[in-house]
Amino acid sequence: MTGAGFVEAVGWTLLNFTWQGALIACETALHLVLLRNASPQSRYAVACTGLLLCLLWPLASLWMRLSGGSAADGGVALMLVGAGAGSPADLGWSGVLGMNLAWIVGAWALCALLLALRMVAGLLWVKRAAAHEARDPAWQVRLDRLAAQFGLRRQVRLRIVANLSSPVTAGWWRPVVLVPASLVTTMPAHLLEALLAHELAHIRRHDYLVNLIQNAIEALLFYHPAVWWLSRRIRAERELIADQLAAGQLGEPRRLALALSELEKLQFSTTRLAQAANGGDLMSRIKQLVRPESQSLNWKAALPVIGFALAALAGCAQQQPAKVQQDATAMNMGPMKIHAKVIETDAVADFNSCPRPVYPAVALQNKVEGTVSLGFLIGANGRVLDTTLRESSGDASLDQAARIALAKCSFKPATVNGTPIDRWTDVKYVWAAH
Fold it and tell me: Would you call 35 helix, strand, or coil by DSSP?
């Protein structure tokens, strides 16, 4: 795979995810609406599945492109639909995007790198706070007692931090709870203990690891609103689950609700690299603790479904088939008609330009036969840019001999309206030991 081919594969994967992500979000939103009165654990599982699919679908598409599968055709989305192949304006959106894939991939890589560095900086800040911030022996004893009630065997460290406004949980193997100094001095002890119970619920559920995966997905797919919407739903449901678990251990849901009410008066923390007690909608969390109510279906609940459905349809409409062959199409514009003709040809090998594949001696001696199917990426200059094995003959030596020999052939490049383009083409070679 050449560098240009890799960039092209990544670029089309990113662009195709615009409609794929919208489709995933639409399906997830529909399930969340149906589960609006179910347990937060059920909604949490659905939202996590949706976000995971947002990562797996483009990864699978990229793998298929890089391995030369059906999604790897360089022209899957770059189909010319205008009245010629001259200027970018004639190419439609797919053509314009295809001509700027290098810039698109470069901008995506730069933004993803910056978000990754921001994530690393946050992790380093948490590590430094856990190592150097002040300790409070009295509150450490309280936290140890609570941790024992939650069945946590690993020690949970407690640190007092000056520049926080909400307790924050970080770490998995050596978990730590960072508590704002303002809460230690101003909040009643029994209310702060309730907030600590909420943080221990996150530790018991290993939410820190899930949150790290969320941040990684957000960094990679930052450009898609569906990813941020799904992450926001995951965090909201996660907080409700932690509230339920903490309230069950405390035996006093109203105490946790009162602690959250007091916390609402403080400035919200913006960190997302750790679990904070002020995550989600505090008022809705308080209502769920004090007076749980069933949610009725209204038009606002349908907005995410409708919005993502329209985005998915718009993205699918931009997709072009791998090969389009039209004699002519006509567009009516008042009294005028503009006829557009798109003619494509496939790459054709000139087998007289290269030596015939040499039968491997061992395979010939053993009379090994078979048919190998190879894929060749033919450049606009007629030369082979990359090769891939589509279907093996059953013998690796036959496959390799055919690949090496046929890669030396010259090809007549594929064309669109007479313009040579890069495109994959398949070649089969039959080995017969006579």
Answer: coil
pLDDT tens digits, residue range 14-44?
988 988 998 999 899 989 988 888 889 999 9
- Please count the helices (runs of H) and the strands (runs of E) in the chain: 14, 14
Range of 379's domain? Answer: 344-431
Rounded to an integer, what distance in angstroms lies between the CA atom of residue 11 and that of residue 106? 9
Confidence band of 300 (pLDDT split at 50, 70, 90)? low
Q: Which helix (H) or strand (E) holds 364?
A: helix 361-365
Whether 351 and 376 have beta carbons less than 8 Å apart is answered as no
- Cα separation, 319 vs 421, in Å, equals 19
Give the integer Cα–Cα distance in Å for 8 and 228: 26
- How far apart, in whole angstroms, are the C-alpha atoms of residue 183 and residue 181? 5
From CA 266, how far away is CA 277, in angstroms rounded? 12
Q: Give the largest Cα separation in the chain, rounded.
A: 92
Name the residue among 425, 320, 321 with its Cα closest to residue 379. Answer: 425
CA distances from 180 to 86, 138, 385 (A): 63, 15, 59
CA angle 26, 73, 5 (to 5 degrees): 105
Helix locations, 133-252, DSSP H: 137-149, 181-186, 189-204, 207-220, 225-250
Predicted model pTM: 0.64
In a domain, 357, yes or no: yes
Q: How many structural domains does the chain have?
A: 3
In a domain, 220, yes or no: yes
State both tokens at 241.
């689950």
* Distance from C-alpha of 339 to C-alpha of 327, rounded to nearest angstrom: 10
CA-nearest of 208, 181, 183 to 271 is 208
To which residue do tokens 């901008």 refer? 107
Tokens of 96: 């314009």
Tens-digit pLDDT profile for residues 148-194 = 989 888 889 999 988 777 888 888 788 999 988 888 888 888 999 99
Whether residue 118 is contained in a domain is answered as no
Rounded distance, CA 177 to CA 380, Å? Answer: 60
Any domain includes 119: no
Assess contact for 220 and 55: CB atoms under 8 A: yes
Reply yes or no on whether the pLDDT at 340 is more than 50. Answer: no
Cα 316 to its chain centre, rounded Å, is: 18
- CA-to-CA dists, residue 245 to 176, 196, 267, angstroms: 19, 12, 25
Tokens of 132: 């150097």
Mean pLDDT of 363-387: 88
DSSP calls for 2-68: -HHHHHHHHHHHHHHHHHHHHHHHHHHHHHHHHTTTS-HHHHHHHHHHHHHHHHHHHHHHHHHHHTT
Confidence of residue 127 (pLDDT cuts 50, 70, 90): confident
